[in-house]
Amino acid sequence: MHHPSEKDYIHQLSIDCVILGYQDRQLKVLVPKLDFRGDFWALPSGFILQEESIDEAARRILEERTGIRDIYLDQFRAFGPTDRTNRAFLERMMRLNEEKFGEELFNRKEFDWITRRFISIGYYALVDMNKVVPRKNDIDESIAWYNIRNLPPMIMDHNEIVGKALETLRLNLDEKLIGFNLLPETFTMREVQELYEAIFDKPFARNNFQKKILDLNVLERLEKKFTGAANKAPYLYRLAR
Amino acid sequence: MHHPSEKDYIHQLSIDCVILGYQDRQLKVLVPKLDFRGDFWALPSGFILQEESIDEAARRILEERTGIRDIYLDQFRAFGPTDRTNRAFLERMMRLNEEKFGEELFNRKEFDWITRRFISIGYYALVDMNKVVPRKNDIDESIAWYNIRNLPPMIMDHNEIVGKALETLRLNLDEKLIGFNLLPETFTMREVQELYEAIFDKPFARNNFQKKILDLNVLERLEKKFTGAANKAPYLYRLAR
């Protein structure tokens, strides 16, 4: 495989991916931990090749860093303060892992372009955690799902990037119906409510909530869920095609 | 003034501004027309200086290209296909305006970096057309408000960028209450409905619409509007602080 070099990339522009899942009534974020001393967690990230669109770059980076492919990724925001650089993080990582880097990397030309100020475009996706199997990259010690309210401290502004992804999710939940990507194919109204409560981090009143969701006019009611107690069994729903 | 040169800018990344206004029940877009033969309309656009954040760049570019300042600009999307370049537009403009450019510009080093593929971050703002006075730049023949449904053909993907801004506006209208930026300080419910109808390009049923807006719980009802016919006069509203 051709290994891309400095001139193959667009400089000063990167992509960060926020992959959201849902389990045990908790919203989760997929975060790799780098295989270096110093506890470095970082969102799946990378630079954009000259020969690929930004959407193609997001999909390639996500697959390289997590093994996940064929999911719908959407942009949510670009992050661009003047002091946005990974120089501090990379220097600390190299200092703590000298046996892997040696002195020479500090002087390599490659180090220059990747440590300049860069703007990052955030992409996010919502996935059914039962359907994707994250696979760690060679540069990672581990890859795992973390509760969004208890994330490890990530490099640079990556924790803030997750916060903005969550804001976008809340804003677009009803309009774009993306929340249902986090649920299995059929679900009860109570499961929808629990999902919304996890996303908004607050309780909703049951009757109002149910009315609001049904008023979206996007759910198809199926048979009752089998629970043994017929008259109290809740209905199952699914997203109408 | 120091004139910025190639190395002062982030390469392959630009900003485009979509400035929306509202008048005569029509949604409008502010578009400068370049002062060159060939009818070139282009959104207010520019590159980002190394020393400014992307938000600062958006405000500077907007002011330089339109004279408008102190308005709230928000990002909505980055545009990044691989073939996104202004080479075709610039070559055509130079061919049609040889007396201004001469042969030499085609060979200037400056021409190289500005004609490479570049990604653009779209910013948009909603302004009260009674409060802003656009001022054309020296490079423009004119600057004017165009009905969003009857825009001139702009360079590159600028018409598509306006389309995405409109999508974002529709998506965020209720949540972010940004639509009220387009209305005067006090307004009738009918005026709100006309604004929504202009934005969504479709009629709304009066009673449902009124209920939906009042349910947002953000309007303060004031005295009735003076029309001469007291009992039919509509109430005035304003956005609650």
From TrEMBL, chains A, B:
The lineage of its organism: Bacteria, Pseudomonadati, Bacteroidota, Cytophagia, Cytophagales. PANTHER family: ADP-RIBOSE PYROPHOSPHATASE, SLR1690 PROTEIN. This is NUDIX domain-containing protein. CDD domains: NUDIX_NadM_like. SUPFAM superfamilies: Nudix, Winged helix' DNA-binding domain. Residues 10-170 form the Nudix hydrolase domain. Pfam families: NUDIX, WHD_NrtR. It comes from the Bacteria. InterPro entries: NUDIX_hydrolase-like_dom_sf, NUDIX_hydrolase_dom, WH-like_DNA-bd_sf, WH_DNA-bd_sf, WHD_NrtR.
